[in-house]
Amino acid sequence: MIETEFIERLTKVEERSKSNTHQIDDLKPVINEIHTMSKTMVELIGEVKYTNENVSELKDKVEILEKEPAKQWSNTKKTFFTSITSSIGTGVAAGILYLLSRGGF
Question: Is the pTM of this model over 0.70?
Answer without folding.
Answer: no
